Amino acid sequence: MRVFVTGATGLIGSTVVAELLGNGHTVLALARSDASARAAEAAGAEPLRGALADLDVLRAGATQADGVVHLAFGNDFSSPEALARNIAEESAALAALGEELVGSNRPFVTVSGTPQAPGRASTEADPVPTDGPVGGRGRTVTAVLDLAARGVRSTAVRLPRTVHNQGEGGFAGLLTDLARRTGVSGYPGDGTQRWPAVHALDAAVLLRLALEQAEAGSVWHAVADEGDQVRDIAAVIGRRLGLPVESVPSQTYGPLASIFATDQPSSSDRTRQTLGWEPKHPGLLEDLENIRP
């Protein structure tokens, strides 16, 4: 299968490209810079120059492909306005890709976050939020899944709060970055809230399985660790960096504060049973031991 991949050279995308190529697919990779294009070529993919905002380029990529995997998302979380811009850009991109695939029965895999279910681990049956700081993203993913009624084999892989590799990535990676900048390995509240996680290499396998097998309109959870307490995550970060570990004000985390403070464990039982997905790589706390002082 020839697969058009956005976000192909990021922490998750690079593992997805390798997973696709290693399983007999070819990859057309969206590349927003010369450096990204060179990285895509070095990985064995064909680069297509353009950014997520270049809708004509996205349409051209989808036209040339047998399936699409969307992973790109803006990295600016500095303010509510920046987060809203990221979501709006992604929404327009997904709408353009989806319209290009209507009536083709080609697979369209996108990603979102795992939802929160008060008092228990969320499951694939729980809806994603459509309000709050990331509600716009939930509405966008719902629209992609609705394309199942228009001849698109659309599916969503919900990624947990931390997708990690060699101690980097996700919300845990944001905690590490903040610790380096502030001199404190902090956590919001009492730190007992739980965050799910998955190794990027395991997430890549699930994204490939969804591309190959998933039914139209289906939802999957890329969750290996159901939920580590945030204070335990901060403790490993603090020890690796030689920094004190303590609770910090929620405003430290900007527009993501409410999400950081929420207990949000998640289950992947249905995903494992249906697609035969079984995570094999190190869990988050073990992987964080790779953080360099």
From TrEMBL:
GO CC terms: cytoplasm
What residue ranges are annotated as transmembrane?
A: none
Pfam families, per database record: Epimerase (PF01370)
Q: Which stretches does the entry tag as region Disordered?
A: 107-137, 260-293
UniProt GO MF annotations: aldehyde dehydrogenase (NAD+) activity
Q: Which residues form the NAD-dependent epimerase/dehydratase domain?
A: 3-217
Q: Gene3D superfamilies given for it? A: NAD(P)-binding Rossmann-like Domain
Q: Where is the composition biased (Basic and acidic residues)?
A: 278-293
Descriptive protein name? 3-beta hydroxysteroid dehydrogenase
Annotated organism of origin = Streptomyces lydicus
